Amino acid sequence: MLEKLPDLPLASPPRAPAGPEKVSALRWAFRFLRWSTYLLTLLTIVLLLRKSPAPPVATTTQAAASAEEKVAQVQQSVSQGQPATLRLNQTELNSYLADHLNLAPQVPVTQEDGGPGAPTASDIEQARSTVKDVKVQLEGDQVHAYVVFDVHGKDMTLDLVGKLGASDGYLKFEPVSGRIGSLPIPQSALESAVRQLMDSPENREKLRLPPDVADLHIENGELVTTYH
Predict the structure, then answer these.
(1) Predicted confidence (pLDDT) at residue 112 exceeds the cutoff of 50
(2) Is 223 within a domain?
(3) In terms of CB atoms within 10 Å, which of 17, 58, 73, 98 comes out highest?
(4) Whether 82 and 147 share a structural domain
């Protein structure tokens, strides 16, 4: 009798090499991801450099004179030990700021060093990054600050919307929204940036209010400052 031979395992068929369709799909996906990153970066730069429109605010000589008169009356009351409240509407506030803010100092830049009147390195650096315009819009209980600043010869804009207040003798700002140029700033990043700005030792003293200021806020489209 013939012995039964053991069953031998069948050899698996050889795997077919990856076809050109799979390679082409991976290559297309990689190219798409790379160019999408380039386009996103370019879009971000364009939005940063694109100036946002300024809020519709006005300044007049009459409003500036009215603000000066109100400030003088409040200072007189405070000097006599009497409590006082200063109320400035949007036009008065912007007119007062236009007269008292020293914006964008013009520093002559020259390639030569030394000599009378020649700017120093710090002067040139300051001229390259300066605030050129500030407009403030008062809406209900919120303030919209619009700032135009120069960065290495290019104008950029910063929009901040939030609520003003006073806490322990310091100016307090609670951001609601913000954007640089036409690029919105994420709320978490905005809150973190404002918190670091206001809590930094360099800026802490700059935000200290005069000792006779008890409160400061926006009310019905007016800046209200209470003195005690």
Answers:
(1) no
(2) yes
(3) 98
(4) yes
Element (H, E) at 90: helix 90-100
- Global pTM reads 0.67
Structurally, how many domains does the chain consist of? 2
Task: Give the domain range for residue 34.
Answer: 20-49
What does the pLDDT look like over 3-15, one tens digit per residue? 555 555 555 555 5
> Using one digit for the tens of pLDDT, what is the confidence trace for 164-190?
998 888 888 899 998 888 888 888 888
- Give the tokens for residue 96: 């007062």
Q: Which amino acid belongs to residue 223?
A: L
Tokens encoding 154: 């290019």
Structure tokens at 146: 């619009």
Tokens 């008292």 sit on residue: 100
